């Protein structure tokens, strides 16, 4: 199966009307704060890595790609960081809603943050519980593989955990390797595209799949490619300032 990304076309829909032109694949990205969720999403969708992100309040990104010659809208929900508490896991409401909304979930931990790894098992349980029989497929991403000297999670622990959870595993570096990040999301998209039948225009494919759907499915925020562009400009101008001041 071939996934062709049209790098020049970025879908942007008005906030008031969020119908999509063809089938849509909805992916929620979940993990502890600071593991690189936003970096991964932006890397996948734009090929770029930007070092500095504001703390994420839960943004929805959207873009059009072609899967096997068919136009598909990929919607990726970046979520606020989950935290471990004395009583277990604390998931912002937004994250729980995103699990209900998504066709698939990407669980992320950082190899430099043991707590983020420990959180995965709990988060996976919540995903499975929320989905019931129709739980969404999950993949596990270990991010920041470039930071060898800061590693707190051994390389073999990720695959073992993935095996226990019954999901695919990828160790990636959002900062160093686009192809790893793209490969992980790409395979997930192909898997989802195979599962969801083509649908008439203006109907979300996920609306046709017989799945768990809570009445609390969140209304997605407006796709924020404008916000992304603003951040690119900020990052670029910061670099220019640094160069001119040297
Ligand atoms: N070295 C390295 N740094 C990374 C990588 N991915 C992300 N970072 C950095 O890690 C920090 C956190 O990244 P974010 O993408 O904001 O993490 P997040 O999970 O979205 O964080 P919250 O918004 O707090 O939930 C940023 O300084 C990134 O530059 C990576 O693969 N390698």
TrEMBL record:
Q: What is a GO molecular function of this protein?
A: GTP binding
Region of interest: Disordered: 198-229
Task: Quote the EC number.
Answer: 3.6.5.2
Domain of life of the organism encoding this protein:
Eukaryota
Q: Where is the composition biased (Polar residues)?
A: 198-208
Reaction(s) catalyzed by this protein?
GTP + H2O = GDP + phosphate + H(+)
Q: What keywords appear on the UniProt entry?
A: GTP-binding, Hydrolase, Nucleotide-binding
Give one Pfam hit by family name.
Ras
- Gene3D superfamilies from the UniProt entry: P-loop containing nucleotide triphosphate hydrolases
- Point out the coiled-coil segments of this chain: none
Q: PANTHER family per the record?
A: RAS-LIKE FAMILY MEMBER 11
Report the sequence similarity comment from the record: Belongs to the small GTPase superfamily. Ras family.
Write the protein's name.
small monomeric GTPase
Q: From which organism does this entry originate?
A: Betta splendens (Siamese fighting fish)
